[in-house]
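Is this the right way to post structure tokens for a design question? Let me know if I should format differently. Anyway, here goes:
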């Protein structure tokens, strides 16, 4: 039997496919190798057996994760009856998973900064790090 933990790890590399790994496995011991369908079957069984969660530990006040949600809520303007679409800004504290959400008109820098200011006022403080979804980390000093 192949080492499916190693197969799983190697699949995380860009350009590596299950078919490529099966070819490498088959070339090592062609007479005793599993067929491709059996190889993929056993690999799928292995994947179902592993824990898919990744635990991250955060200290209180250390990180706040922020992003626009991608969902665009809307409301009806009571005066004009027009449907107005807005952007949903979300912030979550890493330690407590305490959330803040705010609808703003656009994803412009002005609205992005306004959302942060309102979030910090709501939280009554500022975390050490603000981590947006794109991976850039801003340290507040």
């Amino acid at each position: 039997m192949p080492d499916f933990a190693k197969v799983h790890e190697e699949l995380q590399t860009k350009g590596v496919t299950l078919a490529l790994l099966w070819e490498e496995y088959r070339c090592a011991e062609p007479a005793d190798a599993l067929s491709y369908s059996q190889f993929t079957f056993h690999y799928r069984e292995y994947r179902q057996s592993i824990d898919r969660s990744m635990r991250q530990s955060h200290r209180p006040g250390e990180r706040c994760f922020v992003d626009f949600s991608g969902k665009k809520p809307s409301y009806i303007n009571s005066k004009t009856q027009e449907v107005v679409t807005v952007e949903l800004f979300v912030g979550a504290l890493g330690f407590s998973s305490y959330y803040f959400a705010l609808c703003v008109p656009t994803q412009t820098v002005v609205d992005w900064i306004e959302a942060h200011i309102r979030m910090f006022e709501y939280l009554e403080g500022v975390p050490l790090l603000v981590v947006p979804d794109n991976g850039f980390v801003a340290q507040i000093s």
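Format looks fine. Someone answered above. Worth noting: Strands lie at 63-68, 74-76, 83-85, 87-93, 99-104, 129-132, 138-139. The chain has four helices and seven strands.
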